[in-house]
């Protein structure tokens, strides 16, 4: 089921993930992408991680607000993901829908391995166990320097457990995201998210046209 294509259960839809450090602008653009695809006749499912299912949303509450051991955090992220794949992602792709997810496994590499320092081999083992064949068709990495992300976050909301982390943590998350983008250039597109929203949407339109 690699790249959203047929194997066994026949995945006919496309899977697009949105990544970036907190405040980079992912959520701002998901609605635009959904509307762009819907206007071209695609059935779109928008979801998020952690979360996206009733159980996943309960896990999200714990993950965003409770202190816990690093490996507990990683395992709960993957527990939420397993449910999300079973309940939302795979059924959507089998139906032929375009599934948009605000974060997926690249976030676990960025935050739990990059930011918190969990062994990357253990993360790879979790990925291989939970979704050995499924990978996004496209990963949009919204990239901004930390100061920009922080300024945007501070302007808007009460910060959760991750958003209260220090600069060094987010430097490492961003570094790991960019490393993953270099490792998987076939599915990653890095978006310079310091630009104005219309300029970003123009780039997104071009990227999406190629996937249609
Ligand atoms: N290109 C941009 N220029 C100016 N402001 C922006 C831009 N993109 C997003 N913003 C603003 O920055 C804030 C954070 O954006 P958004 O919620 O999309 O980030 P996010 O990456 O989804 O964050 P999180 O992961 O924490 O949910 C919002 O107030 C949004 O309106
Ligand atoms: C999937 C995933 C997420 N996280 C972190 C990243 C964010 O700080 C929060 C989710 O909040 P958002 O506002 O919805 O982006 O969770 C993580 O650490 N590891 C993961 O795998």
From TrEMBL:
It catalyses: dTMP + ATP = dTDP + ADP. Keywords: ATP-binding, Kinase, Nucleotide biosynthesis, Nucleotide-binding, Transferase. InterPro entries: P-loop_NTPase, Thymidylate_kin-like_dom, Thymidylate_kinase. One of its GO terms (molecular function) is dTMP kinase activity. ATP binds at residues 20-27. It comes from the Bacteria. NCBIfam families: DTMP_kinase. Phosphorylation of dTMP to form dTDP in both de novo and salvage pathways of dTTP synthesis. This is Thymidylate kinase.
């Amino acid at each position: 089921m690699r790249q959203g294509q047929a194997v066994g259960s026949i995945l006919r839809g496309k899977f697009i993930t949105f990544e970036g450090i907190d405040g980079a602008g992912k959520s701002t653009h998901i609605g635009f992408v959904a509307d762009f695809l819907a206007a071209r006749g695609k059935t779109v499912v928008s979801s998020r991680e952690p979360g996206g299912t009733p159980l996943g949303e309960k896990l999200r509450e714990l993950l965003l607000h409770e202190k816990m051991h690093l490996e507990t955090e990683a395992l709960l992220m993957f527990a939420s993901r397993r449910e999300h794949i079973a309940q939302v992602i795979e059924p959507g792709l089998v139906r032929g829908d375009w599934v948009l997810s605000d974060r997926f496994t690249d976030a676990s590499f960025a935050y739990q391995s990059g930011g918190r320092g969990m062994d990357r081999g253990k993360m790879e083992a979790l990925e291989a166990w939970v979704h050995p064949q499924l990978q996004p068709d496209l990963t949009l990495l919204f990239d901004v320097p930390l100061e920009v992300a922080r300024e945007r976050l501070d302007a808007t909301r009460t910060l959760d457990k991750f958003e209260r982390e220090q600069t060094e943590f987010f430097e490492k998350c961003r570094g790991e995201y960019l490393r993953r983008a270099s490792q998987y250039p076939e599915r990653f597109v890095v978006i310079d998210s310091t630009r104005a929203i219309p300029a970003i949407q123009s780039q997104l339109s071009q990227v999406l046209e190629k996937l249609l």
